[in-house]
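Good morning N.,

You mentioned wanting to compare the apo and holo forms, so I went ahead and generated the holo version with adenosine-5'-triphosphate. This is what I fed in:
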Amino acid sequence: MCHPNPQNESRDKNMASYADFYRQSMDQPEAFWTEQAKLIDWHKPFTRVCNYDKPPFAHWYEGGQTNLCHNAVDRHLKDRADQAALIYVSSETGVEKTYSFKELHVEVQRMAASLLAMGVVKGDRVLIYMPMIAEAAFAMLACARLGAIHCVVFGGFASGSLASRIDDATPKVIISADAGSRGGKVVAYKPLLDEAIKLSTHKPDAVLLVDRQLAPMHLVAGRDLLWSTLRAKYMAAQVHCVWLDSTDISYTIYTSGTTGKPKGVQRDTGGYAVALAASMKHIFDGRAGETYFSTSDIGWVVGHSYIVYGPLIAGMATIMYEGLPTQGMDGQPNGAIWWSLVEKYKVTAMFSAPTAVRVLRKQDPALLKKNDLSSLRALFLAGEPLDEPTGRWISEGLNVPIIDNYWQTESGWPIITIANGVEKKASKFGSPGVPMYGYRVKILHESTGEELTQPNEKGVVVIDGPTPPGFMQTIWKDDARFVNTYWKSVPGKMVYSTFDWGIRDEDGYFFILGRTDDVINVAGHRLGTREIEESISGHAGVAEVAVVGVADALKGQVAMAFVVPKESAVLDDAAASLKLEGDIMKRVDGDLGAVARPSRVRFVSALPKTRSGKLLRRAIQAVCEGRDAGDLTTMDDPAALQQIRDRVAAK
Ligand code: ATP
Ligand code: MG
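and this is what came out, ligand included:
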């Protein structure tokens, strides 16, 4: 190997401040990223740091060869073979098991040998449709080991969504399980998978199944194989890592589908490994030998970067948790389960989402105080705007710094946050922070493309190329869609659009105001839905809120609010709803002015969300405007959208 593992070097010895660190990444990107590349092992050194000859395609570390699985597993065998690597905890089944790096290495080789036996070679696609079980991580790492491209599809997606992903990825093999479980309810995956394969045009050669004994499974002869059989056959298998070019594809993953049809994001190998290693050190301040806990799912990018690859590359133990945030290992309600895991495994960095915190916020706040959380240095939250009341509630309840992260499936790692490992700067509530090293983030005027440099000017958040290591390479099999979707939306400029709307304040902190298509234009005033939601969520009677713009003959658009009240009694009490509606309107008047006041506030028991927990504003908006709600394949609970329909119809 060319470089030693520098995890234990004194940290950031030459860095006076984050501002200097960031400036170096902008002014001397080659030197900066050459330095970061030392955080991983290279089989062959790279010859060119970044090839940006054909914008917007950035090729990182050309000429170099490496392997994600080697960096996540094998390279730690020398120093930490017996140390915990994967800590699997399921409050659905009561299973709790720790795999050391050595044990993980063995399991991954068994899985890799099984894949080899099924004919999988470098460049083949393997679709992983699995619940949160340790075998899912083995499967991802085994693919990385062989240079096979994994395509993880969130477990429990309906057959139609799965079928379209099978046709897009054209996998040689699909890895799945008999069932997942959610809140104690078994969701049989195998029938969904069988139906999806029936619906898809492409057919896999083989299906590998983990039998958790949660649901009966019918095996298709000649196609379906059991992991238990192959695992036993390859008990002592030794499968070496296939060295990949840095620019070889590691995986594809779909975006959440909040704004429409999901996009198949394609990621490289070397750039991604470096980006993750660097982010573990500079952003998450995670150190080898410690424990990291991300509550996400492997079906999302956070699960790829910060359940599986990032922590392991950093030599940390990673907790993989199956279950709700509110249930104990005995299956009984327990709103402190996560905090008890933090205490038990001495978690130093934790990563979750505002949507999960809002679930916890409905519980007794005393649950945040039950456990010893002294190991925890910070809680990172990402995926959606973190409203101030939610941020304050969790921060005060846990007495731990809360760090909001803004990023996307496309970026693979945070774009805007606080680099906690470089300089422990204070966060500002409502702001994820400042641009991360490597990201030249700008705010542009939506229609003129002019750069907005004055504080608090609203515009589209864009990234000037080249995008940093770890960022998406392209859309899988569709370079033209990649260029046209992301790089051509601002007139006259080739910049990457995040399609999010934001401002930068006097101190350089960014505030994300919502998606560009969520901007409401009321009688010529442009308002982000986020601003109105932020104001409404500050009302003590509000648990959750969604604001959408609805076409209005007179004003162009008006804001419409849907609120989940803290007290569910409000839902059935006309007088109480009317009072709360009036109070909320007054609050918005006071915070933002009458122009932002929603024309109606309607109360519901739940809001429609994607499976990843994001508000489906476009679906709410379509319902309010009497249009078809569009692609709803990623929606979690159809009943929530039906409730909105009923409320709107009731006037
Ligand atoms: P699709 O692109 O398919 O419509 P999606 O954008 O929801 O789905 P993701 O990549 O999972 O898919 O989500 C990224 C988006 O989530 C960002 O563009 C932004 O709108 C929102 N987001 C993520 N983190 C934050 C945050 N910390 N603050 C505000 N918004 C955030
Ligand atoms: Mg998106």
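The longest helix spans residues 574-592.

Happy to go through it together on a call whenever suits you.

Best,
F.
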